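Budget justification aside, the reviewers requested a transparent look at the raw inputs and outputs of the sequence design task funded under Objective 1. We therefore reproduce one unedited record. The lines immediately below are the structure tokens for a 528-residue chain.
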């Protein structure tokens, strides 16, 4: 049984997805103390958390069989990603599950800030009727600066555009052309600070983004600017913000997140009349809670059942539809790497991967990871996985080259894997046939067509009469059944490669006998 621990409250709709898998044993244990989690984590292959559970390095190191950590939410600041990666543990989040709820909450905060709604509400409930005290500003015609144009930033921008706002954004990973299609202008960060009437933060908290808005940045801003943070506490320097509010440089702020949560309730910032506050409610809608629960449970389920990896922070992030498209190629890539690792002997100094055809339109990173994993697995066995494969290759001085080619081949899509072994180039290539079935179609420049599965024999031989007959006779005498066979040659009578699918492994004694047959140059048993 595969054991999964859910250590924070999660919607029943998500838990049910895991409970429906007969091979899963699902346990819900919330409010565990760190020492309690550290004690029991050794028994679980899967762990699902929200924000309360802190998955520290100590806990990860105590996890002997843990394969997947699922975070029901976007932020991963409560998971030690580096420690998980070094142990080969996949860490997944749910980047899309609360997109709409957070975007809507951001707009609510912008509107509440612009029209002083919380203060007006509080005033009227005390029996006051002071309309002039709560003079607001319109959003129409104002410039909204969006710091981080990911899913949530994009959705906020769409809604702000409908209010007649002008949107400028800073995002170093988004092209100006893509933003222009959305009606958004990409600008440098300093320019965003200078022109914005409202600034909304939608970036993750990293070393680069921590206090990205502080004294120096606030000084660049318009007088009377309004700041909104529904992303992560710590992006805005709270001490600098308080000073700017007191001086009037910033006319108002709306905060859903704080540098420390829960915050210090005695802080002057929390009592400031120009600040609108909510207790980290960006994802707090019924729909969002259900969505993130379903999304994280589906991702964890599929990863543990080897049905695909998506939404992983330490594995290339794939949308569901892209993951479904690439999974057969990931499978093919791992088999190609494994074949190269078993078939070719020697010290690998370089791995060159060439992708050809329609596949070059997609993110090839997961394919490369799979190929490297396959290449290293024959030597490193279970110590290598998709997550640490590239680092292990680097540690071993293996140079990895990725190429995309538009050159027309005989196949719609083709993955070619070339390895430099002791100065000699060796090559295998594969493609997908109907129903996404993988095929090996090239070994060292010779065309073959074989299914990469189970036990296989690969032979180098001279293309002479009797080779196939002698081989079949020998295998038959030793009780080895041939399930399929193909061969390729460079010219009649020249060097050939023969590939056999067999129903069982063959002993070293049998392979030794094969090598002694006439015209056999080499023989290798592989398992794919």
């Amino acid at each position: 049984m595969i054991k999964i621990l859910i250590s924070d409250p999660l919607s029943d709709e998500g838990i049910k997805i895991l409970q429906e898998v007969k091979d899963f044993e699902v346990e819900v244990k919330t409010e565990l103390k760190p020492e309690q989690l550290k004690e029991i984590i050794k028994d679980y292959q899967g762990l699902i958390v929200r924000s309360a559970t802190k998955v520290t390095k100590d806990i990860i190191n105590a996890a002997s069989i843990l394969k997947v950590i699922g975070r029901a939410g976007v932020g991963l600041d409560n998971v030690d990603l580096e420690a998980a990666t070094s142990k080969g543990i996949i860490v997944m989040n749910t980047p899309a599950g609360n997109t709409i709820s957070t975007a809507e909450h951001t707009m609510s905060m912008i509107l509440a800030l612009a029209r002083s709604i919380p203060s007006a509400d509080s005033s009227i409930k005390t029996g006051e009727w002071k309309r002039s005290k709560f003079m607001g500003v319109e959003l129409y015609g104002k410039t909204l600066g969006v710091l981080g144009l990911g899913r949530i930033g994009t959705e906020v921008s769409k809604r702000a555009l409908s209010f007649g706002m002008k949107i400028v954004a800073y995002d170093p990973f988004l092209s100006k052309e893509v933003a222009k299609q959305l009606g958004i202008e990409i600008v440098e960060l300093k320019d965003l600070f200078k022109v914005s009437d409202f600034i909304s933060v939608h970036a993750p908290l990293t070393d680069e983004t921590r206090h990205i808005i502080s004294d120096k940045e606030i000084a660049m801003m318009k007088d009377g600017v309004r700041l909104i943070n529904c992303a992560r506490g710590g992006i805005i320097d709270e001490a600098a913000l308080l000073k700017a509010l007191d001086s009037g440089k910033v006319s108002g702020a709306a905060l859903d997140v704080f540098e420390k949560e829960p915050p210090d309730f005695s802080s002057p910032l929390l009592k400031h009349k120009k600040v609108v506050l909510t207790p980290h409610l960006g994802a707090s809608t019924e729909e969002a809670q259900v969505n993130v629960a379903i999304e994280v449970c589906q991702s964890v389920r599929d990863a543990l059942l080897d049905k695909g990896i998506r939404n992983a922070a330490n594995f290339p992030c794939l949308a569901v539809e892209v993951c479904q498209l690439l999974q057969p190629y990931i499978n093919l890539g791992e088999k190609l790497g494994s074949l190269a690792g078993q078939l070719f002997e020697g010290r690998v100094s370089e791995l060159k991967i060439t992708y050809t055809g329609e596949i070059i339109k997609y993110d090839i990173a997961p394919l490369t990871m799979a190929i490297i994993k396959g290449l290293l697995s024959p030597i490193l066995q279970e110590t290598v996985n998709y997550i640490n494969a590239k680092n292990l290759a680097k540690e071993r001085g293996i140079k990895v080259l990725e190429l995309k080619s538009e050159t027309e081949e005989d196949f719609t899509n083709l993955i070619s894997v070339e390895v430099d072994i002791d100065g000699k180039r060796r090559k295998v290539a594969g493609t997908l046939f109907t129903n996404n079935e993988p095929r090996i179609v090239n070994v060292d420049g010779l065309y073959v067509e074989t299914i990469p599965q189970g036990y296989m024999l690969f032979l180098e031989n001279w293309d002479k009469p009797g080779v196939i007959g002698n081989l079949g006779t020998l295998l038959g005498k030793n009780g080895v059944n041939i399930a399929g066979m193909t061969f390729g040659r460079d010219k009649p009578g020249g060097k050939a490669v023969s590939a056999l699918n067999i129903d069982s492994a063959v002993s070293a004694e049998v392979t030794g006998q094969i090598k002694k047959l006439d015209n056999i140059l080499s023989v290798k048993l592989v398992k794919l």
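The mean pLDDT is 90. The first strand starts at residue 2 and ends at 6. Computational costs for records of this kind are itemized in the attached budget.
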